[in-house]
Each structure stands twice: as structure tokens, then as C-alpha cells.
Amino acid sequence: MGGVSHTSLSPLPSSDRADIAARLRRALLDASFTADGLLDLLGAPAYAALARSETVPALRATRGDTPLETLVRLFLLQQPVPYTRVADVLPVEDALESGWLTRTGGDEVAASVDIRPYGGPDGEDWFIVSDLGCAVGGAGGIGSREEGVVLGVGGASTTLAGITVRGPVGSALDLGTGSGIQALHVAQHATRVTATDLNPRALHITALTLALSGAPAADLRQGSLFEPVRADEKYDLIVSNPPFVISPGARLTYRDGGMGGDDLCRTLVQEAGDRLSEGGYAQFLANWQHVEGEDWQDRLRSWVPRGCDAWIVQREVQDVTQYAELWLRDSGDHRADPADYQARYDAWLDEFEARKVKAVGFGWITLRRTAAAEPSITVEEWPHSVEQPLGEAVREHFDRVDYLRRHDDAGLLAGHFRLVAEVVQEQVGLPGAEDPEHVVLRQHRGMRRATKVDTVGAGFAGVCDGTLSAGRILDAIAQLVGEDPVLLRDRTPAQIRLLVEQGFLEPVE
Predict the structure, then answer these.
(1) 3-state DSSP call for residue 157?
(2) Fewest Cβ atoms closer than 10 Å to its Cβ: which of 248, 374, 410, 465?
(3) CA distances (Å), 431 to each of 15, 427, 437, in order?
(4) Does the pLDDT value for residue 51 go beyond 90?
(5) pLDDT digits (tens, 9 = 90+) for 290-322
């Protein structure tokens, strides 16, 4: 993948003036230019409208001259503001000299970049820098067709941040860092952070995001995929929100991978295994093709590198027309000349037809480096709502994988289990029937799964509090229902294994 031209994009602030970034951060915080401060100023409707790229409510809410209103107009709404008003809030000459602000003629100044307040997971006040109009809630919304444009925080960014396994690690890699949001998150729990991107503009903006957020600087490297990483470098955590869009050609660096079909995501996953330390995690967002005559789950299993457990979750599927329309709107092509729009739409469908692609899936891929003789690969579809953040649920999934790998049926029957919190039981059957047709256990945390069990499975789960072994519980149930305890012990471990695997029961060791 080649270099990027930035001739038509605005100049960026200097990234080597940490002192000015620190003074700017202090001024922003003093004015309550934070996620909470914005909500208080704008109110929920106007704040939500910003996320839809609708700015009129926010403009109406910032007609005063308080410091916070000045900053919202300057950095979120990209309105020119009188120099004297800005001078009351920011170190304006330093900001002009280092490029955070520019003069617009007369006595007004304007922002050179989008700056959006972002609340960290533990209440941190962070600031995400992006190109003008390209932060979620920015003045223009996303719709730029500039090749090297750098976006701010979108739904994909927050999804990846939410599913990432958190915990102290020695080294972390943010591959395809963009505006630096993932690097900012991992900097809170990694000793060393490396951030890479094919786009040098993205690396520059990542440095700004980290500095303005008061985070340690990262080791920034330019290049595609794992090219900037030495062969002998291993990481405890790798995260990537890559340019996963399956498109005809590579028009936009932030989204189009430049490889055919879903080859970029496949290559990223396949090459990650050799870059992971033992027990390390690699977590990606990805798109994948649903190819005529091919099972999509088998396609993804073939991507998993040797020596890695994997958990792959398909969250959404779109037919090829929906998919093409989504990304044509993303780049603003729907507002272009109708003939150009039709030609681009045709190009997308030609590409899918040539590859026999009937739909595109979107989801999460998590790898964990393991020394196990038989790695575990779980590929599933789960389009239902989940509870973010899910990082701890991801870690617990792999802990359960380890437990089940160590315990055969006899080991399960000797084990002790506890029903996890916030599981409810639903009985389904005809009104007035003596027994339900089936019983559903439903989680209200994490993945919010639901699973069918028989009456024995429901009774077993209901009394699991960690005190009795699974075998003793089954013996008691057999006596209660008049069933042969040996037969019950023989047929129930598969159900116990499923309940543990899906997180309804947790081992008590």
C-alpha cells in the first residue's frame, strides 16, 4: 500500500510542543470543556443531535459568551470566534504559534482541528483530535472524500474499546491507530505502547490526542499492517480497528484496506499469532464476505493462526446493496452527481458479483496465544444487545475455555459450580399445563445470552451455590424425580458443559 497525499488537508498543530499542549489541556478543563460539561451546557437533545452531525441545536445553545460556549463554537462547531473572546479562555498566542488555532482575517480565529471531549472508563477527561468536521459530533459530520482524512471517535472505535481485555501488560500494539483512541485506552494499563498507521497524518494526530489528554507518548511507526514491527517483537495485547471496508479500490485510507475482498482482515488475523506473547490477546473489528456455496463460519475458522484460541462473534450481516449504500453515504457520494453515484454503486456490485459475494458480515475477532495441544475456536452469530464494556466477559470466556479443556465429564461431576448473578428463568408452555414445554435461562449481564434447558438442567442450575459437587446435586435430583442416578450422571455433563461454556455457571475451585 502506497503513501498518502495531504495537499488539500489543513495544516496540523505542532506535535513537539508538549508544554503548549499541557497549557491548552489545563485551559480546556478549567472551562469545563469535558463530556459532562457539554451535556450540562447543551442539554441531552442538542448533545445527541451533535452525534447525528446536526449542529443547529448546539449553535442555539451557545449564543452566550461564557468560556465553555466559546470553546464549543471554536472546536466542536468550527465557527470563527473573536480573538478577544478566545484570549479570555486559552493561551491564544501560543495556540496560534503552534498551529492549534489560525487567524481567519479581521479579529477572528478558528480551530485547525476538531477537539472532542471524551470520558475515559474511570472518569478521565480526555480529548480526541481529528480533522476538521470529522469527529463524531463535528460540524460537517463524516462525509469527507479526502484520501488521508483522519476521523475521530465513531461507533466502531467505542465498540473495540469496550470489548478489549483490560489489565496490566508490559507491551501493547495499536495497529492502524487513526486518531489514537485505542492507544489512549491501552496507555492506561500498558508499560509500553506502540501505535502504527499507514497514514503519517494519523500518527501526527495520535501524538496530539495523547498529549492533549495528558497520556504518555507512544512509539509511533508508519507502515501497513505488521510491516513497522520487527520480527522479534512480541506484544501482550494487540488491538486494531483496521480499514476493514470491502470496497472496489482504496479511495479512503481510513476505511479502505487496498486489498481484494476481505484479504486485509484475513491477513491481519493470520499474522497476529506470531506477534503475541504467550497468553497475550489480539482483538480486532473486521468485515468478512459471505461467499456463495461457502460456510462463513468455516471461512473465519481458516483465518485463525496456529497456537491461538479464538472467539469470533458476527454482530451484523448486510446484503451487498445495503453494504454498498452504507459506505457510499459514508464518503458523501450520495450528494455527488447522480451519474457518478450510479457508476460507483455499479463498481461495488461488479466487485461483489465477480467474487460471488452475497452478503457481508461485521463483528469482533479475539485471539489468545495458547500452548494447548488443541486450541479452541468458537465462531458464532450474536446480533442481540450486549452490555458494554465487555472486556472482562471476554477474559472470562477464555478462562472457561481453559477450565473445560482441563476437565472431562468425570471432572465436571466432581466440580463445584455457582449460578452467576442476574440470571432469570423463564418457563414456556401452554396455559394450565402441568409441566412447561421448555425452560429458558437468560442472562442480564455481559453477552445477555439465553439458552434452553430441560427441567433437570434448570433444577441443577437453580441449586448451584458452590457448596455441593455437581455429582451430588444430580444424585439428589435423581432421587427427587425417581430417575436412575447413573443414567442421569451419564446424560447431564453435556448440559453442564454448555452452561459453563456460555457463562451461566462459574466453577468454584
Answers:
(1) helix
(2) 374
(3) 69, 11, 11
(4) no
(5) 999 999 999 999 999 999 999 999 999 999 999
pLDDT tens, 76-127? 999 999 999 999 999 999 999 999 999 998 899 999 999 999 999 999 999 9
Of 197, 172, 209, 204, residue with least CA distance to 187: 172
Contacts (Cβ under 8 Å, ≥6 apart) of 227: none
Partnered with residue 119 across adjacent β-strands are 125
Q: Backbone dihedral region of 53: left (phi > 0), alpha (psi from -120 to 50 degrees) or beta?
A: left
Residue 2 has pLDDT above 70, yes or no: no
What is the rounded radius of gyration, in angstroms, for the C-alpha atoms of the chain? Answer: 26
Confidence of residue 3 (pLDDT cuts 50, 70, 90): very low
For residue 160, count other CB atoms closer than 10 A to its CB: 20
Cis amide leading into 389 (omega within 30): yes
Partners of 313 in beta bridges: 364, 380
- CA-wise closest residue to 360 among 296, 303, 266, 293: 296
Cell numbers representing residue 196 in the block = 502504527
29-33, 168-172, 245-249, 422-426: least confident range: 245-249
- DSSP conformational letter for 275: G
> 137: how many CB neighbours lie within 10 A of its CB?
23
**Rounded (5°) CA angle 257-237-12:** 55
Alpha helices, H only, 355-508:
391-406, 409-414, 455-463, 470-481, 485-491, 493-501
- pLDDT at residue 144 is higher than 60: no
* Cα(194)–Cα(201) distance, integer angstroms: 16
Q: Which three cell numbers stand for residue 222?
A: 508508519
| Three-state DSSP state, 264 | helix
Sequence-ordered alpha helix ranges (H) in 122-218: 155-163, 181-186, 200-212
The DSSP secondary structure of 384-397, one letter per residue, reads S---S--HHHHHHH
Cα separation of 261 and 264, whole Å?
A: 8
What is the signed CA dihedral for 42, 159, 396, 381, rounded to 10 degrees? 130
Strand arrangement of the beta sheet that strand 438-443 belongs to: 423-428, 438-443, 450-453
Grid cell listed for 21: 499542549
What does DSSP assign to residue 256? Answer: B
Question: Which tens digit of pLDDT belongs to each residue from 163-219?
Answer: 999 999 999 999 999 999 999 999 999 999 999 999 999 999 999 999 999 999 999
Q: What mean pLDDT is predicted for residues 11-17?
A: 94
Strand order in the sheet with 416-419: 465-469, 416-419, 505-507
Q: Is the pTM higher than 0.85?
A: yes
DSSP one-letter code for 274: G
Among residues 366, 373, 363, the alpha carbon closest in space to that of 398 is found at 366
Nine-digit cell string for 359: 452478503
